[in-house]
Design a protein that fits this description.
- The protein folds into two domains: about 160 residues, no CATH class; about 130 residues, 3-Layer(aba) Sandwich (Isopropylmalate Dehydrogenase).
- Helices cover about 45% and strands about 20% of the residues.
- Strands 1, 2, 3, 4, 5, 6, 9, 10, 11, 12 and 13 form an eleven-stranded mixed β-sheet that branches. A two-stranded antiparallel sheet has the order 7-8.
- Strand 9, helix 6 and strand 10 form a beta-alpha-beta unit.
- The longest helix is centred in the N-terminal third of the chain and has 23 residues.
- The radius of gyration is 24 Å and the shape is globular.
- Pfam families: Iso_dh.
- One of its GO terms (biological process) is tricarboxylic acid cycle.
Length: about 375
């Protein structure tokens, strides 16, 4: 006669927990909506630099803004006499876009679309290429709608953690949970890049924007990692912790207080929108999404998917190309292009959104003509 083991209360608890877990996992598989958390490293190809020429992927699109931006970029690159060639990626070539950026390691994205499909593609590129940092620099230019002089804020934000994984599921009918996935390894990697970049840029104080009081585990882990990592930069950088609400209040009333901002992906995007709004508008500035091996450069209005502009700003395009040149190591060309942009501003050449009568094409042409005159003078 077979003897059955005695069923204890702890055994029943384990059985019920396992049954509950199986139900949850089954529900996740059944009601899983979208997204994927990155676990594997990016497949890195050798650098594509043929004959000393850098090849850059240029993503255009079908919109008027995209076509206009592509024309601006191509004209500036050809007139700057920089060894950079573009590989144009048309709309609908999604797989080619990914492989092109994977191969070239650098891209310029000028199309501006805010529909769900376009946002999904942008997030996929960030995750597939592990572009874990988002950077933008906003500053005041006299006469360009900035109410505060001497504003210069560098924002270095986390880019593909948390909500960027787009993980959501329905455990039971009528209930949806959205997961914000954060790992200590990703936090350390982001902060290591951010502190190094801030020190290299000559910044003196970094302010970590957080809500550690409300999100004690997720934001709290980022705060603790920042405190730990700051020990290596005590001689050149001051670390300040600030709650989101206080940061927003100070940004709109006293933006000159800030030097460099750190923020997780939960706050980085809308903080950049506030910083740009304080300094005259997102169409003045540029942004870059960057990882260990790849980088995608965009006008800030493209990064923020702002569709309230009829045209792509010439100022944002020039600023984007300046960032691209610096990334590729063409510092002298970047300085020359930036000086020409500043000259147009100082001479009162302004587009209509800033109270002028000039077009974006005129701004670009004026800069190109001056660059050609420089080349002839040499």
């Amino acid at each position: 006669m077979l003897r059955c083991p005695k069923v204890t209360q702890s055994m029943l608890a384990r059985i019920s927990i396992r049954h509950f877990a199986d139900e949850i996992h089954g529900s996740v598989r059944a009601a899983y909506a979208k997204g994927d958390a990155r676990a594997d490293p990016v497949n890195v190809l050798p650098k594509s630099k043929y004959g000393g020429i850098n090849t850059v992927s240029l993503v255009t699109g079908t919109t008027i803004i995209g076509q206009q931006g592509a024309q601006f970029v191509s004209s500036l690159l050809s007139s700057s006499r920089v060894p950079v060639e573009v590989q144009v990626i048309e709309a609908g070539q999604d797989d080619e876009y990914f492989h092109s950026v994977l191969r070239n390691r650098t891209a310029v994205h000028v199309d501006n679309q805010a529909d769900a499909e376009a946002k999904q593609k942008a997030l996929k590129i960030c995750n597939d290429l592990d572009l874990y940092v988002f950077k933008t620099r906003t500053r005041s230019f006299p006469g360009f709608k900035c109410r505060f002089p001497d504003v210069d804020i560098q924002l270095i934000g986390q880019n593909n953690m948390g909500i960027f994984n787009e993980l959501e599921y329905s455990p039971v009918e009528g209930v949806v949970e959205a997961l914000s996935v954060v790992s200590q390894k990703a936090n350390d990697k982001y902060l290591q890049y951010a502190f190094k970049a801030a020190a290299k840029a000559g910044r003196k104080r970094v302010t970590l924007i957080n809500k550690a009081k409300e999100w004690a585990i997720s934001d709290g882990s980022l705060v603790e990692a920042a405190k730990r990592m700051h020990c290596h930069y005590k001689d050149c950088l001051e670390l300040e912790l600030m709650e989101v609400e206080e940061a927003i209040s100070r940004l709109v009333t006293e933006p000159t207080y800030f030097d460099c901002l750190f923020a997780s992906e939960r706050y980085a995007t809308f903080l950049s929108a506030i910083c740009s709004g304080v300094c005259g508008g997102a169409n003045l500035f540029s942004a870059v999404e960057i990882g260990d091996h790849h980088a995608v450069f965009k006008p800030l209005q493209t990064k923020l998917s702002l569709t309230n502009y009829a045209n792509l700003s010439a100022y944002g395009i020039v600023s984007t190309i300046v960032d691209l040149f610096e990334h590729l190591g063409h510092d002298k060309c970047a300085d020359a292009l930036w000086c020409e942009l500043k000259r147009t501003m100082d001479e009162g050449i302004r587009t209509k959104e800033f109270g002028g009568q000039d077009t974006g094409e005129y701004v670009i042409c004026n800069i190109i003509n001056q660059l050609r005159c420089r080349a002839l003078g040499k």
